[in-house]
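Record type: ASSEMBLY
Status: queued
Input:
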Amino acid sequence: MNSIHEVREEARKLLEEKRVGMVIGYGKGKGKKNYPIFITDPQKVEELHFESDCFYNLAVYLRKPEVCSHGKLAIVVKGCDARSVRGLFSENQLKSEEVVMLELKCDAKGIGRDKCTTCRVKNPLTPEEKNPIDGEIAKILAMPMEERFRFFAEEFKRCIRCYACRQICPHCFCKTCIVEKSEPQWISSTPSPLGNWSWNFTRAFHLIGRCVECGECARACPVGIRLDILNRYLAKSVEEKYQFIAGMDEKAAPPLTTYKQNDNQDFIR
Amino acid sequence: MSMNMNMKFEPKIMAFVCQWCTYTGADLAGTSRMQYSPYVKIIKLPCTGRIDVQFIVKAFEEGADGVIVSGCHPGDCHYTSGNYYARRRFEMFHELMSFVGVDMRRIQFAWVSAAEGRKWAELVNEVSKRVEELGPFNVFHALREQANELNP
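Status: finished
Output:
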């Protein structure tokens, strides 16, 4: 499937034949801004749009109870968002027969985000493609330890604990997040330097081998914490160590849910 | 962590160990009357697979200067594979911790079997000495002091 016209046609058929209860896609407001829309009426599929600013990762809605209650779902995805959906399949959060992916053609430069420069879906990667985030990673790796610590501590200090990063993330689907657990309380929920450090560290850790680098957490962050740097560093590290790229194969076990007997243990005494 | 100039720095080191191998190994060190650094505080857990990295973060939050994590050698896990899962988790933890600027000389992972009382004593001594040289984990503990200022 390619053009938005084909997507609309397929969405109409799915809804008319009652093969899905709802279609999740991009709509267009009067201010020409794109936003997520949820269609249950086949007459309304013309409202589906796709333009260069459709960077939202709609996969986040697949796990929301208000959406799940409509039964089987169809979702408009770009190739990169499909990785999130496959990630949810691989973690048994969704059954592949319950979701229809309506994949749009995206030329990978189309939505103009940092991630598009090293798009994993468009094949093959060419050597001249450089992700601007890699430059930031290199800068951090060149810092001495204490300076790195201060860099991240300063980033995290700005956190106001709105949890927008968590709410927008398709992979943050726990019913009760660890930060909301109170007996015992693992992470202080007050916006303060210590709790903020632990919260941002823990969220990064929980996304290891799962994050598809959609960049939505960094975009949603109202104080501009560079979560994209952390996530990309970890994704690259996982690829290097376990030859695993999140969301490429729905049958592949995420790297921290499995092991090999000869895994590296250089760091263990 | 403030201290008197005349006082020697005594590091706080937390050890999270598995009950089948390392805890028994530490017990052996004790019953064999081996002397080792008194700075270590041991917490016994069923398996290294049970050691959530949150424990390590919490230890630092509560004032630890160093952390030891130890369990059964690969192939010896009482639950067959807990230490294999843990090994991957710790590898990525190591990666993330050093990326955000935590000096990894403060955290030591180890395999210590029930027969390795000697190795346990050496491990604790080595980590204690290293952390003593590094001094208190001031950059991290400063976060806590700032937190107290905000929420007295």
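Annotation: The domain at 13-150 of chain B is CATH 3.40.50 (Rossmann fold).
Annotation: The CA atoms of residues 71 and 97 of chain B lie 20 Å apart.
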